[in-house]
Structure formats: structure tokens, C-alpha cells
Amino acid sequence: MHTYIVVCGGKPYMVVGSLLDALAKASEECSGESTEIYKAKLIVELDPEDLREIRESLSRRAAAGPAPAKTEKAAGYAVVFDQMFKGFAEILARELHDMPLEFHEVLGRGIDRPIRIAPGVYQQPARDDYDVLSLLERLANQYRGVIFFTGDKKLAMQARLIPGVDVEYLPPGEVAGKEMALKLMASRIRELVRR
């Protein structure tokens, strides 16, 4: 049994069953209106600890006040590395100095505000995945695009839902050595920026 969402003229109906059940619901509810049928799929499973962290992060965000007004996006790209790729930002900033890029390295606890460590290279604080996703969303609103390198499967799945973010999932052990990972990243960044 699957879950389907039938949308009739913008109004959603949930159907549990088969595609035929979804089509039957569409024929009942959608007379002469535009109709869409979506197969619902689990995107991410959250345990009680994940939900607690999200609630705390939402509370912190609400306490911080409304988001600043949207400004015009910068022409360049932001490249973000999760904690697995510590130190990669500075190396790739030197390697790709001729491209319109700004690099952000996510650190765990230890800093409480962004720190500029080199021209166009920043370290960003993050207490949890929600902080990383908030950083990606903020950068996606500021730049033409965001390229996010991560080795965390759950975080990669969540980040793919943010418009304007290209997620490059590199699980631990998939690339033979730091040098190969850096070459692969540089190649992928060039490809994404030039498309």
C-alpha cells in the first residue's frame, strides 16, 4: 500500500491504497479542474531527539526576530563544507582563486559567530543539522547558487530540499585520500559554476 496525494485545482486529498484508488479519487473530486497525482515518499525520519533539536532551533530563530529584507543576489557561488571536510576550504580557495566563489567551512561547537580565516574563506558555527540547513538557506538567498559538500546522508537528503543548493554527497571512504577528494571537488565546482 502506498500513499498518494491527489490535487484538484489546488486542493489536496490524501489517498492510501493503489494508483487506481488515487485515480478513482481524482475522478470523484476533480470534475473539470486541473489534476495532479503525487506518490508520497518518506523524505526523512525524525526521532524524538531530532524533533527536540528542531524545536529548539525554531525557538532560537523566532527569538532572533524576522529575517532581514531580501537583497539582490551576489553573482558568485557559495561553497559549503560540512565538518568532515575540515581544512578543504582554504586549499580550494587557493586552487579556484579565479572563480567567483566564497567558501564556508562548518564547524561544530567552539565558535559562536562566523570567522573570516582568509580572503573569501569563512568558518561557520553550527550546533546541529538545523543550523547547517539555516546557513544553506541564507546563502542560497544571497548567492547565485550554493554548492554543499557533505558526508552525512541524512543531512544531504534534507539539504536537497532547499532551492538553489546543489548537494554533493561524498560518504567517508568513497574517495581514496584527501588529494583525490580535493581534485574531485574542484572539478565538480568548475562544472556547476560554468553550467
From TrEMBL:
Official protein name in the record: Uncharacterized protein
